[in-house]
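Two proteins were folded this term; both appear here.
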Amino acid sequence: MHEEAGEQGVSSKASAAGGKRFSHHPSSLAPHPATILAFDFGARRIGVAVGDSETGTANALALVCAASFAGRMEKIEALVREWRPQRLVVGLPVTLAGAESETSRDARRFARRLAARFALPVDLADERLSSAAAEERLRECGRGGQKHKDLVHAEAARIFLQSYLDEQHASRR
């Protein structure tokens, strides 16, 4: 379900973006029309994943942390400049029954701010159970627990972005 919203090393670009980088930077500086950035929004941390709509693949990318919302937006802007996505996706946290909460409203507000700041289309994607799935996957890979806690947010973004891409691919058939 989606709707439109009105540790492989840290590269120097990751440091400029501020935050931890979990994946390689793009191979080309030219805009890539298939690139999508996804955000697992949280009040303190924002997990970021990058996907390619042509290949249908998603990868955990970064964790954005800053004391202020403005600081987090500056770091996101650096990622948008670096990756030059065609679209953004924000995870929409809903209950198992599909009901929204205050956190859902915060994610919608964040999506509207992204759309206004970057003039890009922003979709909302159901992120139900993505954090639990991310924790389980990281545990299976030997990266669970407090030591790898920061990986969960970017991995959660990867999981719901992968579902989003799978859904997009299925609808094109």
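Next, the second protein.
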Amino acid sequence: MNELLKKIYEKVISQEEDIFQMDKRINDCMEEYISRYKEDFSEKDMERIRDCVYYAVLTSQIEAFQMGMKYTVKTLLSILADL
């Protein structure tokens, strides 16, 4: 099920305009934070740090989507069981 939800997120949800806007806000925030360290690291190291942070954020977005879907279904099933 997680693989199916991951595919739905990657192929459908991630292409929505509100997700593009969210990604821009997150990217701006990450760049602002990461840029604080540009004097401490080489450009190559900064790129590695950036890659790690972006990967962690993408993984978090996918996991959050999956968790949200699961709780939505659980809530709907609970409501239907009470009818």
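The chain has one domain: 17-82. The chain has a mean pLDDT of 93. These notes refer to the second protein only.
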